[in-house]
Specification:
The complex is a heterotrimer of chains A (481), B (442) and C (121). Chain A is of the alpha/beta class. Chain A has helices spanning 47-59, 81-87, 90-93, 105-122, 134-151, 169-176, 194-200, 223-232, 287-290, 325-361, 383-389, 393-401, 430-449, 451-455, 468-473; strands at 126-128, 159-163, 180-184, 205-211, 236-240, 260-262, 283-285, 297-301, 304-308, 378-381, 409-410, 419-422. In chain A, helix 8 (223-232) links the parallel strand 4 (205-211) and strand 5 (236-240). The two termini of chain A are 20 Å apart. By secondary structure, chain B is an alpha/beta fold. Chain B is built from 14 helices and 16 strands. Chain B has helices at residues 9-18, 24-27, 49-61, 82-88, 91-95, 106-123, 135-145, 162-172, 191-197, 219-226, 313-316, 329-366, 391-400, 427-441, and strands at 68-69, 127-128, 153-157, 178-182, 184-185, 188-189, 202-209, 232-237, 255-259, 275-279, 292-296, 302-306, 382-385, 403-404, 407-408, 417-420. The chains are: A alpha/beta (481), B alpha/beta (442), C alpha+beta (121). Chains in contact: A-B, A-C, B-C. At the B-C interface, loops of B face strand 4 and strand 6 of C.
Amino acid sequence: MNNMKLIFEKGNTNRGLDLMPECDVPVTHVSAGYERKKELNLPHVSETEISRHYTKLVKRTFGVNNGFYPLGSCTMKYNPKINNEMAGLPGFSDVHPLQPIDTVQGCLEVYQLADKYLGKITGMDAMDFQPAAGAHGEFTGLKLIRAYHQDRNDSKRDKIIVPDSAHGTNPASAAMAGFTVVNVPSTEDGFVDVEALRNAVGEDTAGFMLTNPNTIGLFEEHILEITSIIHEAGGLNYYDGANLNAIMGVARPGDMGFDVVHLNLHKTFSTPHGGGGPGSGPVGCKDILVKYLPTPRIIDNKGMLAFEDKNEKSIGRVKDFYGNFLVVVRALTYMMTLGSEGLKDASENAVLNANYMLHKLKDTFDIPFGNGRCMHEFVMSLEELKKEKSVSALDFAKALLDYGMHPPTMYFPLIVHEALMVEPTETESKETLDEAIEIFKEIYNKACNDPDAVHNSPTTTPIGRPDEVRAARNPILRYNF
Amino acid sequence: MGTYIPNTKEEQLSMLKEIGLNSMYELFDAIPKEVKLGAPLDIPRGMSEMEVSSKMRKIAGKNKVYDSIFRGCGAYRHYIPSIVKQVTSKEEFMTAYTPYQAEISQGILQSIFEYQTMICELTGMQVSNASVYDGASAAAEAVIMSKERKRKKALLSASVNPMIIETIGTYISGTDMEMEIIPVKDGLTDIESLKNKLDDDISCVLIQQPNYYGLLEDGDAIGSILADSDIKYIMSCNPISLGILKTPAEYGVDIAIGEGQPLGLGLSFGGPYLGFMATTDKLMRRLPGRIVGETTDSQGRRAYVLTLQAREQHIRREKASSNICSNQALCAMTAAVYLASMGKEGLKQAATLSMSKAHYLAQRLCEIDGYEMVYKGEFFNEFVTTVNTDVDRVLQVLSDNGILGGYPLEGDDKGQLLWCATELNTKEEMDALTRILREVQE
Amino acid sequence: MSKVLYAKSHEWVEFLDDTRARVGISDYAQNELGDLVFISLPEEGDEVSVGESFADVESVKAVSNVYSPVSGTVKAINEDLLDQPELVNSDAMDAWFIEVENISDKADLLTEEEYKKLIAE
């Protein structure tokens, strides 16, 4: 059996690195009763072994540098290297979060600049960088909505409306922030059902969450009507920034009637996803919500930037130290590099690349929404293929793996059966898109002519399809020594 | 202007033509005119890489990087082995997405599985997740996961870092949960008061070990009070200290959490850090966040996958107990590489050095008139002293000498300094610190 | 199993007498759900009511509610399912979830033929 070894299965007892000097002061021992008795099993490996172990793991990892990564909703664009270099500057990376305020003016300036840029990009009056990820931003933004209503003694507003095409985090965040979730259906064209929304609002409506362009890659044509329905009912509009990459410099949530937004710097602003994080999920809001933003807030006190901690209206702290700072450094570097016209170029090319792929694929694949057009991403349905050839979206995705490409997002949004959601991003060349288009068509043909070959894929990856049922029925979540 | 768009203007035009459009503008036809931005974004024009680099360096230059740091209070400067950054900077690890496609993500998945194993080993617990945002969000998630139908009130010790208490407050406000603070006595959780507060509606008790003041709590006493009850015992711990200090499991803890930053992550002005969470088999399905499990592939080979996903937001939506999606995966990998480099002996050494240096520092500081230990209890690598003159002045003089002094406590503790030492603080440095402090006095 | 009736939400109920019944999910339901990996059950003594969810069934990629076809008190739960959710996949009609007593109300239930007709539609 050709198993990849765990780091615990390598090396030998007493092997290890020599990292620290002898103690230059008298040694203090832990008093009786407080000392660890339990055996501590950690790897016992040399530096060579660590280096080779992780190099092996690298070979079993697929990054944006390995190939095309058209994961819908995730905006897997190229991650510029200068961003990392800037984040690694000792002036940023070696600064203690509790240093005197006059010694961290550069860090605060990073936040101040990012605030200014993102405020302009989104049309919001203020930004807050405390949230560590998109879902964390959602939670924070929803707490602002709650605080707003409570401050107005309008506390019966306990419902958040979400379209059925929403990301799972939307309803989960709303529930976590103490709201009840009301789902509204989408129309056959994939838009928010305006009539259903009108019927859903009422005196208990706290707010409405929307991704726009929405999760099938279409811009909500009735966006102003939608946001005013909510406003007229007394609710606030929440913008999920997952798809901001489609509209930078073209349109702004702030001009669409949104009161609060969260962004995903690890999507739109090119910071690396790190195999699942860290991200950064800044929240932006209109003036009416600024006083509820989390504490501390960064303020400009006559040229000296500072943290302001005292604000009774604030929802409070959502994280221990302020923000995933180095992620914001990367995003700011990116925004400075692209500037006003570059950000717009990025969005234009993201939309162009998606439309180009859509155009070339629409005769082969069923693309249920958009009439042949999309914003920065589009959704295909393999329902027919599944019915006729038993080739599912999952099978199709697995077949793509054998072509050295990361598959699109599968089975999302939930309103499309056998969905594959394709988001090429602006950092891919025409050749890459052409190649991917050919691969999609080739697999489609294979699915029609030799479905078993697709069912049996992938065959060239480090492992074949894993048994997920076995993993979930008998969870093995750690190595046993 | 820098750009990362490979296609030339000509290529862009030819692609537009192919889809039957004449200009980029037409791509956005679907956006109603009323919401279209009429003017360019009001932010500066783009810059070349060279210019950006120079501008960012200037900004970084406005921060002060201390040679010598005696401040912790939730963020600790420890030695980071060279191999750590080398490994975690690898482009594949940095740029990969969440490992949903297991066949091409075994590297990330295995690294998380190894991380989970190491966190279980450190804490003595049975199950770990793949990380949450930071120590405070780990605490908040632990409090939420302890909730039962009839038990909705959390008891939090006043000796837990106030930022953590505040964060928990934000997380549970507006929900059906409540919290109450257990007072401190001599810097430690007041156990008599804790006993008096125990009731049928209490879901959990949270303490920090070592606590905010650096002191070691009587975790056993609290453990025996909570044993055989339905109240969850939550302990927030410093992971380095677990190289030598009693594990949460040995105290009978149900959920062990903490800030993983000391495990190879830089100070980075507060983030990205790493929230770790570990629990018992019994509570496994209540643990929030991603979890990696071992299984086999189609050919019977060992393989790793994201598992128990039905707990999570993308499946359970509004019924999920947590909304967490992106976590701190690369920070978790950093912690794993750090722990692999340190090994058992290395971690023990870092912990022992930190503790020994802190005790030496405490002794030297207390030789100065007016500097006294505020608390008498056992401590690990942080402790509180009085100061013989104005705190701000003391810290300013130290700062002028390239030293970041202890953290000035606030509220009832105002005027006191919370000191910290790690293996990075040399005897020479500590002797110099004492010398300077004597001079301030004069 | 002549006494077995079905709810439109795909649960079966077998009346042991007038006030006691066992409840499970139909074979059709287990087939639709696919391989079950976990089942969460209520506690003994809990009240269940018609049309309200009393349990969750999890497959790898989905979680579904199980709705009670009767109102009453949970007398017993099938603890085997907690460790072996696959029992539902292998024989859904044998793998009861809960036994309810003091039944005070029941849903509009279908006979086996009526249920078969429903799922054929």
